[in-house]
Amino acid sequence: MVEKYKNWLNRIIKLFLFALATLIIVYMARDLVEIFNVIIMPNSERSLGIISDYILAFFMLFEFIVMIIKYIEDTHNIPIKYLVIISITAILRQLLVVHNDAVQTIILTLAILILTIVLYVIELIKKKEIERKKNK
After folding, report:
1. CA-CA-CA-CA dihedral for 25, 29, 32, 33, to nearest 10
2. Helix, coil or strand: residue 20
3. pLDDT tens-digit profile of 103-126?
């Protein structure tokens, strides 16, 4: 009986993930159309800024799609590594878009440094676990 409910919940989760992925892909397609429109018909001096905003948003959406695929492939588990990488990308996007305030730039740079250190520590832990399993 419990297994039956688990199966239903898994199906519902997969359905919602599929719907989310579909919405993200539609939004990405819309962004691509907007990027091409701005490139083909530049109407202002801010065109380069608008294009970079769309491209950065596109890559964020692409990372979310990759994360959803990874979640489905890896037995409903998202490795922390991917979440940290997405966080770094989001902070980089913020840093590229808003770079007028020096204090905010320093804080964002420190956040990237901390997340990079976290990635390094995660990889060290992963290597030690692999070595420990080999020694058993």
Report:
1. -160
2. helix
3. 888 999 999 999 999 999 999 998
